[in-house]
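It is worth pausing here to work through a concrete case rather than discussing structure prediction in the abstract. The textbook approach is simple: state the sequence, then state the predicted structure, then interpret. We follow exactly that order.
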Amino acid sequence: MKRFIMNPPPGERKVGFVGDYIKFRLQIENGGSIESGWQAFLRTNLGRASISRKEIINAYFKKIPLFGASWHDVPMRIEGNEWVVEIPLTEVGFFKAKAYARDTRGWQHWPEGPDFGINIHPDQCRTGNIIYCAFTRLFNQTKTLERARDDKTEEYLQQLDKQGYTVIPQSGKLRDLKRELPHIMGTLGCKIIQLLPITPVPTTYARFGRFGSPYAALDLTAIDPALVEFDKKTTAVDQFKELTYETHKYGGLVFLDVVINHTGWGSFLQDNFPQWFKRLPDGTFESPGAWGNI
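Step two, the predicted structure:
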């Protein structure tokens, strides 16, 4: 029985970028010659991202089982004593592939081992990917001070806290961060602005710190009003677009830190889709309990 060798080897994982090519080779072990009438194919889901995505969505929303509809066979050509095929990388995502030979009876002969996998990234992410992690709240008037906390003000705020008032400190704005882009993108040479969550946070119940934790999102599709300058011409989304537009002018990218496995108390999802949240045996909502906070 013939044994086959694939290159890249089965089970191997690689990283590629859109615009690259990857060549697959299949040969008989010990350099054996290819018999007349034999064919080889690469079974893969490369180039079928849209089909794979649709199948995953249908499996979740329509409860249609996954059948691997994105997989297809690509014919390989003979070069000397091996079959080869070169595939262009055109889509971002994780894909798999494995080559096999088919004899004159139609029987398939596969190399041993699991599928080869490749993680394909956007072309613009090849090099120079320095990330600047920005917590927008900190870009206020205290950003250049050695110590942002003022003891006199803090003493007064603590008195208000004890009386049940909700004190929200002054926050940096998206426009404040935008004004720092010449330094971040130009002087420091960063390419990616990673924004800590900019969604609204609890200011009353289950509040973490005086301001509220950015990881306790109240609405995953909204922007915290505290991060926006008030004017009569723009919305919060408009001001977010201003930041992204300026970043793109520098050839940079904006990454959003989005919390998808928990929310703040009283979030839009908790109020409208409580069945999506985990419950304890007594029926209460289960809390991640970050830093001892409920």
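Step three, interpretation. Helices lie at 49-61, 151-162, 174-179, 181-187, 236-249, 268-272. The two ends are 63 Å apart (CA to CA).
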